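@channel sequence for tomorrow's demo:
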Amino acid sequence: MSPISSGIPSGLDPARIEARLRAYEGFGVHRTGWPGDDRTTEWLRAELGAAGVPAEAQRFAFPRVEVQRARLTWADGVIDGEPMYDGGFTRIGGLTGDLGEDGDPEPFGKILIATSVLKGDRKWVAPDARAHYAALENEGTLGVVVPIGDPEGEIVLRNAEHIRQPFGIPVLQVAAKHARNLNAALLQGGEATLEIDGDRLNSRATNVTATLLGSDEAAAPLVVMTPKSGWFTCTAERGGGIAIWLALAEGLAALPARRRTVHFVASSGHELHHAGLEEFMKQRAALPKGAHAWLHLGASIGAKNAVARMGAADEALHSLTTAALASAGVEGYEAMGVGEPGGGEARNIHQYGGRYVTFLGGHRYFHSPQDTFDKACDPASVARWGTAMWTVLTGLLD
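structure tokens (generated this afternoon):
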């Protein structure tokens, strides 16, 4: 460990992490541009300001989905859900057709129930599901209902990877706990009505950005990024990365000197194809490839029962990060192959040919309304991951 990294930032104390995770959870639902997302922006700016780090809110435009009603109705029942934000809408009153199972050889004019997703068939919820849904639309399928859930059967949502080029077919996501009722409706046969009464409106959301200048203007800068938006309270999904992001900024601000400039961005639009990060990069066109490295604090860092991963763009970064994780006592994670960015924001940097280190993963309540502090968070684990990233960051400063 280099001398500069020997002093761990106070923001990585587990008690401080817990306080910040609970504060973040307290802002409510963090969907892009929703009140909870806006409150997070102001909170992050205040936290950074208290540490002497001036921060700005960077506004950007995005297609905001407004939903009046999203439900499936049939003779003996009704189920409310959430539409896929990059799917289609129905006319007011909905679309009526016979119910069918996925794999139906004659899907024309039918509403399909994607029962195979409960058996692990990921094509219904994959990031690149657009082609699958477009094929169903071409076959004349009216709409699709996708039952999927967390361990208690509560709804789990798919990110809207195609929000700016949505597919036409309406897709309703419902909680897995409704699967029995859906199967009964399929056995009974008959018609059902799928209604997704919604629209996409032009709206604005905010990233939080800050810059700590270095002493060497010729040295390529570093960037520390973390997403701040998500479908529900997403306390474990986003909270660990946010707590570490704040601690790293505070720790760097307290150092007597830094050679490299370090940019910080907490981006909104995560669940909408990383819209906020794309806007950040568009306004700083030289950074994606020109930064010395991007440090990505991704999903589920330090969560309970996490499926944790680490990735890096090249051998040097991979070795540095692996050693940092070992030094911090982090165990039980998957080290992805060199050059594999995973599914988070590091993939955006990878597409531009930039260098990155990424921490990311999933957990039992990922994308579920039950992703709360009490169910899913482990501040001591967050602290260990944060300590590793502090070692990586300070090791790259010089």
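heads up for whoever presents: The chain has a mean pLDDT of 96.
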